[in-house]
Fold this sequence. Notes:
Helices cover 44% and strands 15% of the residues. By secondary structure, the protein is α/β, with parallel strands linked by helices. It has two domains: 4-20 and 90-214, Rossmann fold, CATH 3.40.50.1000; 22-87. The radius of gyration is 17 Å and the shape is globular. The mean pLDDT is 93.
Amino acid sequence: MTNLQRYHHLIWDWNGTLLDDAWLCVDVMNGMLAERGLPLKTLEQYRDLLDFPVKDYYEKLGYDFDKEPFDEVGMEFIVKYNARHFETALHNGVDSVLKELKSRGYTQYILSAREHSELLSETHKLKVSQYFKLIRGLDDHYAHGKTDIGLQLIRDIGAPAETLLFIGDTQHDAEVAAEMGIDCVLIPHGHHSIERLLSNGVPVIRDLKALIEIL
Length: 215
């Protein structure tokens, strides 16, 4: 990545990038797998298996959608996740990084596969909503992908694509950034392993603090 000074608008992913919740996703899913007699997964296995759309991930875990509809399984996960989402916290240093970037004049946004109203509630509860000009999530719970709302976000920002940088934690984030026509950096502390992130051909930085150092 070159000419870092050209970026003026930072678009953040939420789950895994700012919110430390991969461990909770594993815990909730393991409970569901145990109820069905399916093999449990470690955090490391989860980071290698998680895929988008999430229906593909569920099939990798052994779910049979001829026996139970994906919509029902997906909603079961969401209900159980939401019942415990208060257990999650931001990754270390998130507040100070967002504050520093705002003080430097960057305009910040969130683009997330989280359901929109729940996303707004979480950012408010964790006291970071004030750092973002716009916060965008999906209109349902099934995490089909966020390219469409990402393209709408770019239109709403109304700035040249070369001035925007997307910051995420999954291969899907790199794919979404490419479809949006903007640059991306990935951080390996969320939902995908560093090996998967390195395979995308986009920069991978060690942590949030490193972002401050390169911008």
